[in-house]
Amino acid sequence: MQEIITFIMEIIGTVAFAASGAMVGVGRRMDIFGVCVLGVVTSVGGGMIRDIVLGIIPPGMFQKPVYTIVATLTSCVVFGVLYLKKELLEGHFREIYDRFMLIMDTIGLGIFTVVGVNTGIRHGYVDNTFLLVFLGTITGVGGGLLRDMMAGVPPYIFVKHIYACASIVGAFSCVYLYRSFGTVAAMVGASAVVMLIRYLAAHYRWNLPRLKREE
């Protein structure tokens, strides 16, 4: 049962992050190949970094290609819908883009943060809180970071609302919930924490302090 729930969450997170990556590609006027590459990188990039840190060679994305396949199909669907509905690219595209990115990135971040922590636990690092939080955070934000670097835009995690910090809080929550209530409660509860923080940050326009210089 636990493995089934984990797999379902991973697929949902993969679809969400692939959709956000594909949308960035569309926004940067990439062709379908570029859109698919960004979708796949966003979905599996964080997990690939996590697996390398854990010494899992080859990384899981190459051992279980189902996630790459799902990400590719999702990216094609996003591209296809926007290709057939070109009117969505006109007028209110920025508003649609921002809302879509917020929803998809929030879902993906919440799910992949807890997946990263759970992967560390399954590999025997249950007592290493620092490593588990790092694994959760890098799994959550790594794909989006690679996506934005490839797209040539400022990384979302550094400029938009509360992002990486939400992942860190969620990773800590997952670790302590796991120790008290077990895997399923930890993954569901901590992912909800991440999503709630992201929603509140967007709704109330919470941002970390930054320096502003005169032009």
UniProtKB/TrEMBL annotation:
Protein's membrane topology: Multi-pass membrane protein
Subcellular location: Cell membrane
Spans traversing the lipid bilayer: 6-25, 32-53, 65-84, 96-117, 129-146, 158-178, 184-201
GO terms for cellular component: plasma membrane
Keyword Membrane among record annotations: yes
Superkingdom to which the source organism belongs: Bacteria
UniProt entry keywords in alphabetical sequence: Cell membrane, Membrane, Transmembrane, Transmembrane helix
Keyword Cell membrane: yes
Leader sequence segment: none
Homology family: Belongs to the UPF0126 family.
Name of protein: Glycine transporter domain-containing protein
Species whose genome carries this gene: Blautia glucerasea
Lineage: Bacteria, Bacillati, Bacillota, Clostridia, Lachnospirales
